[in-house]
Design a protein that fits this description.
Order of helices and strands: EEEHEEEEHHHEHEHEE
Shape: globular
Largest sheet: 6 strands, mixed
Length: 216
Amino acid sequence: MLSVSNLSVSFDDNHVLDGFNLDLQSGDIFALLGDSGSGKSSALRFIAGLESASNGRVALDGNNLSLDGNHSVKPELREIGMVFQDYALFPHMTVFQNISFGIDYLSKKEKIERVQTLLELISLQGIEKKYPHQLSGGEQQRVSLARSLATSPKLLLLDEPFSSLDKSHRDQLVQEVRVILKNAGVTSILVTHDENEAEAFADRVGVIHKKKLLIK
């Protein structure tokens, strides 16, 4: 479903990744571990089309997205969703407006149905009219997840989405988000530096070691 091959990333004379390879099947939940500066976020951003690379290829469902490190398909056309550490919700928009932000091509009725379905999926029914500041950190992160799933992405990338939460809420949310993604059947990659979080969240875990990816 996803194939990343021979990915190499350098910043000036600093070689971060060299020969990074990853293959995922549909519905896989994968966690990418690594120390700060190891290149894990760079790998994620290359897959998303937000960064170029010295070399590398990304294919999704057999279609080349990037070849030889260059952007061949724009990020917004890749059918890839992203969830960030800071939630990235629009503070002046309601939950409904945040979740439906990327699906304006749907009719009003279809948008309402899609948002309701996603709120049921994240177990936050009835909060459509609330604003982000009225939600807890965990609720905001689940709304961010719902917004990323609204466009029905083939692949979801999560860049340390739990790191700003305290441990008691983080452990619970890790399990909740895993269940949500499994129920939705969305292929996902989590970037984290927390080994326990990676093991609890993912079906498989990979570690960046000496610029390459090792699958545990």
